[in-house]
Specification:
By secondary structure, this protein is an all-beta fold. The chain contains no helices and 20 strands. It has a five-stranded antiparallel sheet with strand order 1-4-11-6-9, with no helix packed on it. It is globular and about 45 Å long.
Length: 252
């Protein structure tokens, strides 16, 4: 059923910590209509029998709720033009990051094993956007196909593990950029405020996600220059920025 060119490459994710982020013409980057999600990975260890040399070995992904090199799924890359239906190399229902790139408007829907719509991944109006999807804990239906609706003569869709998001490890250090990014937060958000600044004449959207509950919200959705300071919702674990233009996020 797929007419797009498909390439699979291994997703080598660096050792990860909690810390994320799409765009103007954007459909909520989720494969579910419910307001809930989670991600957790326990710690396991193995001990040799008493009559042998005993040694404890920890999993590479231990204490890392976003996974790691030992358990990350492969990155999937698909290219094409115009409207297409893509059969995924690896169907999945776990949280992933999609990067949509194209020379014109490109929107992507998700389809289940029956070929029925199961949500929207998101859209990119120009350039590229990175989007979090499948972040709801109750989302169990595997996505097996992508429905691409595009006026682009060339597009690329890359599906990556959540661990490929950028790590924001120090709230005292602002983060900035000029396009889309997703941050995993590695600090306590309680009683924190986020100052958001954007310079440009295009779209600017900031999403916040709580992977444990699946709750999400937009704390900025504007076109053009923008500045605001707002409380961070409790238990925010991921921030997604979709923008064309310079932006910065500062915590206080």
């Amino acid at each position: 059923m797929s007419t797009g060119t498909k390439i699979s490459i291994g997703a080598g994710a660096a050792a990860l910590v909690l810390a994320l982020v799409i765009g103007a013409i954007i459909v909520l980057p989720t494969g579910d209509d419910e307001d809930t999600a989670s991600a957790s990975l326990g710690t396991s260890e193995t001990t040799a029998p008493e009559d042998e040399s005993s040694e404890t070995v920890e999993d590479e992904g231990a204490d890392n709720p976003f996974g790691g090199p030992a358990d990350d799924p492969e990155t999937q890359v698909y290219t094409g033009s115009g409207d297409e239906i893509i059969d995924l190399d690896e169907p999945h229902s776990d949280p992933r990051i999609a990067t949509i790139e194209g020379d014109d408007y490109t929107h992507v829907n998700l389809r289940d094993r029956n070929g029925d719509p199961s949500g929207a991944m998101g859209s990119a109006a120009e350039g590229f956007d990175r989007l979090l999807y499948h972040f709801h804990p109750r989302y169990e239906e595997e996505t097996t196909q992508l429905e691409v609706l595009s006026t682009a003569t060339s597009w690329t869709i890359t599906l990556e593990p959540l661990s490929t998001a950028a790590s924001w490890t120090d709230p005292d250090q602002p983060v900035e950029g000029v396009s889309s990014e997703i941050f995993l937060l590695d600090w306590e958000v309680t009683n924190r405020e986020l100052t958001i600044e954007h310079t440009g004449d295009r779209y600017f959207v900031v999403w916040v996600f709580d992977l444990e509950s699946g709750l999400y919200d937009t704390i900025a959705d504007e076109v053009g220059d923008y500045e605001s300071t707002d409380p961070l919702p409790p238990n925010t674990s991921i921030i997604q920025v979709n923008a064309i233009g310079e932006w910065s996020l500062t915590v206080s």
